[in-house]
Amino acid sequence: MGRSFQHSPIDFRSMPAAIKALVIANVVGFILAQLVGPEFYRLFGLVPAQVVHARWVWQPITYLFIHGSFMHLLFNLFALWMFGMPVEAQWGARQFTKYFFLCGIGAGLLSVALGPNSAYPIIGASGAVYGLLVAFAMLYPDAVIYLYFFFPVKAAHMAILFGLIEFFASATHATPGVARFAHLAGMLIGYLYIRWWWIAKIRVAGFWSELLGGVGRIAHPMPYRGPSRRARDQRAPAGDPMEEVDRILDKISALGKDSLSEEEREVLRRHAEHERRKRTDA
Question: Would you say residue 266 has pLDDT above 50?
Fold first, then answer.
């Protein structure tokens, strides 16, 4: 059964520093664009031809903080607050900020790669915001979101729905004034980063941990919920020490070594000693 995910009322003072800084940067960028005019969009929006031929390498970053209209800005800031708050709370400011720019800059670079001679500026934080939607959906797949404030839908289903909308809109050029591919690219980069790159880091950390005979610590993008009912039903027979070791290592990957109880630490110590004796005897 899905669960509702509820925010406290919007309060700028209570926002985490990372989200607050992004909000301020977007508001300042919007005001400057309104004051300066079209030249500001050409200089600091993402113009693929300028990036490729004139080496305006700052544009894949600065375009994230420029919006064409107040509603465009308002939508992205609302989505940043709605999806960014729980993601930042789960990951922390450093990892959240890294992920935001990874999705946003990556979406911009992919747009440049696909249209290197385009002279039309791409603006807005939508690529990064759609990446945050994917992160939220992967962290809280059963959370209930009220789409357009009326239709209840699970976060995972909403992410899939938005991805399909962006895919078909970009394929059919239904809205040529909207950088649909940048939205889709942000979602794709976010998904691949969480599903594959982060898992690869955990496996590498586990390899070195095993090689050094210890247990390392690595942050995990997904909350630790313990073994599922199906996993519990399929456990190895009672008394199998490796099953317990695997469970503890999964817990460390998700929450870190400090989350272990004394009994779990003792299990790992006994296992490490057993492995050392096996290597010595061999």
Answer: yes
